[in-house]
DNA sequence: CTTTTAATTTACCAATTGGTTAATTAAGAG
DNA sequence: CTCTTAATTAACCAATTGGTAAATTAAAAG
C-alpha cells in the first residue's frame, strides 16, 4: 500500500466512534467479535463490517480459534498518524495560528481607521 | 461540538489526500481558494467543498478580502488527534502488539504439536 | 454601466458508507 | 446426526461523499 493510501485508510477507519471504541477495547487485550459487539446497540454484521475496515487499514489482525475469530490490536499504522500530526504541533503549541489571526485582525482594523495608508 | 463529534469530523477531514495537501499548503501561509486549487486537477466547486469540510472540522478559518476568501490554518483540533493517538504509542513503540502475536503463535504451534495439553 | 475575476450555490451523478434482515458457513456439544 | 453458537456473506436501503457543469453572487476594473 502506498503510504498516502495507508494514511487515507487509517484516518478513515478512525473517523468512526464505534471503531475507535473497538480499538480502545482491544488495547486491553484480544477479544472475539461477540465480545466486541456487546457494548453496542448494533447487529453482528455491522460489527463484522467495522472489523473489515479496521483490518484493511492494518489496525487489527485476526486469528482463528474454534468458532471464534479473536481480534488483536495492531497499532503500527498509528505511528504514521502520529508522525503526520507531529508536523503541525508548532501550529497549535506556539499558537502560531491564533497569532496570525490576531495580527491580521489588527491590520484589518488599521486599514478601516486609516484607509489611505 | 461534543469532543467525540469533533474527533469524528477531524479524522474524516484528514482522510482525504487533497484536504491534507491543502493543510500542508496552508502551513506555509494563508492562500486564496484559487491558489489552493492550482495544484489539483479538480474543479473550483470541488475545492470549495473540501474547504467546507475542513472548516466544519475547525481546521481552517476564512477571511474576506475584496473578492478573495483567504484561508488560514487553524491547527487546534489536531491537538486532540495527537492526544488520542498518543494513548496507543506504547503499542507500536514497545511492539506490544507484535509480542502478543509472537506469543500467540508459539502457543498455537505448541497445541498443534502437543494437542493433549 | 459592462466586463472580468473569485468564489459559491444549485442540481445532478456514481460510488461508498453504515446500517438492516435473512441465509450460510464453521465448529463444538449432546 | 442434530443442535447451538460464532461469525460471515448476500441483498438491500438511506445517507453521505467527491466529483461535475451551469448559474449566481460579489467585488474590482475598464
Would you list the SSEs of chain A in sequence order as H and E? HHHHEEHHH
Write the CATH fold name of the largest domain in chain A: Arc Repressor Mutant, subunit A
CATH class call of the largest domain in chain A: Mainly Alpha
Overall average pLDDT of chain A = 85
Annotation, overall tally of beta strands of chain A: 2
Strand order of the largest sheet of chain A: 1-2
Radius of gyration of chain A: 22 Å
Structural class of chain A: mainly alpha
What percent of residues of chain A adopt helix (DSSP H or I)?
A: 55-70%
**Low-pLDDT sequence parts of chain A:** 110-117
- Share of residues in strands of chain A: 5-15%
Overall CATH architecture of the largest domain in chain A: Orthogonal Bundle
Q: Domain count of chain A, please report it.
A: 2
Task: Walk me through the topology.
Two copies of one chain form a homodimer.
Chain A: H1 3-14, H2 17-26, H3 33-37, H4 44-56, E1 60-62, E2 71-73, H5 76-86, H6 89-93, H7 96-113
Antiparallel strand pairs in A: 1-2
Helix pairs in contact in A: 1-4, 1-5
Chain A binds a DNA duplex (30 and 30 nucleotides) through residues 16, 18, 32-34, 42-50, 53, 66-69.
Amino acid at each position: 500500500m502506498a503510504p498516502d493510501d495507508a494514511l487515507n485508510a487509517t484516518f478513515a477507519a478512525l473517523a468512526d466512534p464505534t471503531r475507535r471504541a473497538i480499538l480502545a477495547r482491544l488495547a486491553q487485550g484480544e477479544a472475539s467479535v461477540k465480545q466486541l459487539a456487546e457494548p453496542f446497540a448494533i447487529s453482528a454484521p455491522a460489527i463484522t463490517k467495522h472489523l473489515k475496515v479496521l483490518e484493511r487499514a492494518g489496525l487489527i489482525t485476526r486469528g482463528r480459534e474454534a468458532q471464534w475469530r479473536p481480534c488483536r490490536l495492531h497499532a503500527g499504522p498509528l505511528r504514521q498518524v502520529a508522525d503526520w500530526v507531529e508536523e503541525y504541533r508548532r501550529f497549535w503549541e506556539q499558537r502560531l495560528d491564533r497569532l496570525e489571526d490576531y495580527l491580521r485582525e489588527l491590520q484589518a482594523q488599521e486599514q478601516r481607521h486609516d484607509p489611505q495608508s
